[in-house]
Amino acid sequence: GINVVLPTFAKGGTHVNVSGAAIARHAPNKDNAVKLLEYLVSDEAQAIYAKANFEYPVKKGAAVDPVIAALGTLNVDPTPLTEIAKHRKAASVLVDKVGFDN
Question: What is the signed CA dihedral for 57, 61, 66, 70, rounded to 10 degrees?
Answer without folding.
Answer: 90
